Amino acid sequence: MRIAFAGTPVFAARALEALHAAGHTVALVLTQPDRPAGRGMKLQPSPVKQFALAQGLALAQPQGLKLDGRFAAEAQAARAALQAAAPELMVVAAYGLILPDWTLKLPPRGCLNIHASLLPRWRGAAPIHRAIEAGDAETGTTIMQMDAGLDTGDMLRVERLPIAPDESTAHLHDRLAAQGARLIVEALAQLDRGEPLPATPQPAEGCCYAAKIDKAEAAIDWSLPAATLARRVRAFDPAPGAHFTRTASEGRTETIKLWRARPVPGQGQPGEVLALDARAGLLQVACGEGALQIEELQRPGGKRLPARELLAALALQPGERLGG
């Protein structure tokens, strides 16, 4: 099938790779403009762009797609490129830009979206993070016929996936990316065989909005229950990374990232170090309800390390209060 593809991060690149490998003609790839990243803040191409360039695929990187918007000239150029590509269908995965009505109507077979949630449970930008943060027991992938709403279109294929009790966003993301890539290939194969994809309208109830993760959310609020904080630690791994602060004896404040922790019984003032044994790697901190046993940490400029390898260097003291 002749398709266009719109996506930006690794999640989308996995789907593009699978579609290309399945023999579909990718006539045009849309991805977001290069963004500064890394310590040097140099412009970096998206994973989707990297794959497109490696395969010699036609590429467009408009800053916007609204024909009457701030980037109208770029939108007009993107529309011309899409018209010239003449795709039968567009596949969209974590593109990051809103597709206006003209985009949805341009391909004769419309636009299919790969969404990492059991819709309508988590609509929006961060469904993987929010599912873990909320303590969901399962998630999955929905292949959806796009419409003008935010992740509101009819569901064409749905597959469930259990969330492991200790799973991070990093691990779950990779499993969902593989699932989404497989499902979109299966969906297009079904269309190629002349078999329609049964459309199921999304139910009105059970909808939640998965807002984009704000860096401020990653600061540990010790007044929250330990179980809530443990879920946030997993949800914010690998980015932005949950963190807390502590003030050393010389008055210097250090921000420490927290990568692995579990709730345990305990009582004290929120943020209070309740139990500490550097040799055993034991660090328990009181929360609003229960305590958090911290198992993996990272100091600024350092590597992720088991708690037992950092506690001696941190020189924490029992009764010390940690900040958020």
Automatic annotation (TrEMBL):
Protein name: Methionyl-tRNA formyltransferase
This protein's record includes keyword Membrane: no
HAMAP family attached to this UniProt entry: Formyl_trans
Pfam families (UniProt xref): Formyl_trans_C (PF02911), Formyl_trans_N (PF00551)
Function: Attaches a formyl group to the free amino group of methionyl-tRNA(fMet). The formyl group appears to play a dual role in the initiator identity of N-formylmethionyl-tRNA by promoting its recognition by IF2 and preventing the misappropriation of this tRNA by the elongation apparatus.
Keyword Ion transport part of the UniProt annotation: no
Enzyme class of the recorded protein, top EC level: transferase
InterPro entries associated with the record: Fmt, Formyl_trans_C, Formyl_trans_C_sf, Formyl_transf_N, Formyl_transf_N_sf, Formyl_transferase-like_C_sf, GART_AS, Met-tRNA-FMT_C
Residues of the Formyl transferase C-terminal domain: 212-312
PANTHER family reported for this sequence: METHIONYL-TRNA FORMYLTRANSFERASE, METHIONYL-TRNA FORMYLTRANSFERASE, MITOCHONDRIAL
Superkingdom: Bacteria
Formyl transferase N-terminal domain: residues covered: 1-188
SUPFAM superfamilies: FMT C-terminal domain-like, Formyltransferase
Reaction equations catalysed: L-methionyl-tRNA(fMet) + (6R)-10-formyltetrahydrofolate = N-formyl-L-methionyl-tRNA(fMet) + (6S)-5,6,7,8-tetrahydrofolate + H(+)
Keywords: Protein biosynthesis, Transferase
GO molecular function, one term: methionyl-tRNA formyltransferase activity
Residues that, per the record, bind (6S)-5,6,7,8-tetrahydrofolate: S117, L118, L119, P120
Similarity comment text for this entry: Belongs to the Fmt family.
E.C. no: 2.1.2.9
GO CC annotation terms, alphabetical: cytosol
